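Progress against Task 2.4 (sequence-to-structure conversion) is shown through the following example record, which the project officer requested during the mid-term review.
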Amino acid sequence: MNNLLSHVQDWFFQKEEHFVAFANADSRIEGWFKAEMLVLLNRLKQQGQLGAFETEANITSPRDRKRKQVDFRFHLEAEIHLCELKALCISQTKTSRNLNFYFRDDHVGLIRDFKKLDELTNVNKWVLGFIYPSPDIRDWNNVVASLPKSLKHWLPITKPQDFPKFVFISLWRG
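C-alpha cells generated for the chain above:
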C-alpha cells in the first residue's frame, strides 16, 4: 500500500491550486476526489502497477446480510483492498467545520466509515482522507486520541507534519 500511497501523493500534490480554491470556498467536493482517484487508478492499472479495481463496490456484510457500498475495491500485490475516501475541509472560511466535526459519529464523519468497514470480513481496509488545509499537529493528535475504544484499532499511517500546508493525505488502516 505504501507504493500506492506515494502515487496518490504525487498525483494530488500537483493539485495545490484546487486545494486552495476548495479551502477558500470552504467546500467538500468528495466527487472530485473520487474522480481523480478513478483516473489515477486507471493509469496505474494500465501501467501494470495495480490489478483490477472497481468503484462503488457492493459487499455483503456478514453482520446483517445487507449490502455495503465501498468507494473502491482494488487488487494490489495479489490481495484485495477496500478503501473509503473522505474530503475534509477545515478552512472554516464560511462554516464552523473543524477537524472535530469529521470525527463525530454521524453521516459525514470518519467514524461511520470505520464502522462500515469493520462490518466487512476483508483483511485490507483503508480510509483515505484529504484534509485541507493541513491540520495543526496538536488538533490532529487530539482527534486521534478521541476515537472510541471500539475503533482504536484504526491507526493513522500518515502524519500532518509530513505534508504541505495545503493538504494532509490521511491514510488509516483498520
